[in-house]
Prior knowledge:
This protein has 108 residues and is mainly α. It has helices spanning 2-7, 15-41, 51-75, 79-101.
Amino acid sequence: CVPLWVGARGVEFDWRHLQMGLDSNISLVRHVAAAALLWASGRHDLPSPLRLPLGGLLVATAYEGFLIGWAGQVLGLGPWGALGLRALGAAMLGLGALRLLVPLLPPP
């Protein structure tokens, strides 16, 4: 978010700074989701029906950059379209991690 704050002020505004700020926020969501999935994979009390989706999400996390880049080239997306595709992938990964981790929370 630093390029957005430092580079996008006043007369020197460029859309590139906004794009870099959004890209870093997307990366933050992706990294938090990946950390949560790795934390969940180390739990010994993880129910067995959740192990396969957890493994699938971990594999998707590892290959997300490749898959997003490939899909962006196949679809012929520009820089903003690729950013939207990365945001969609990070949102799906984050929501998937949230869906897997909610059953592990203690009851209120």
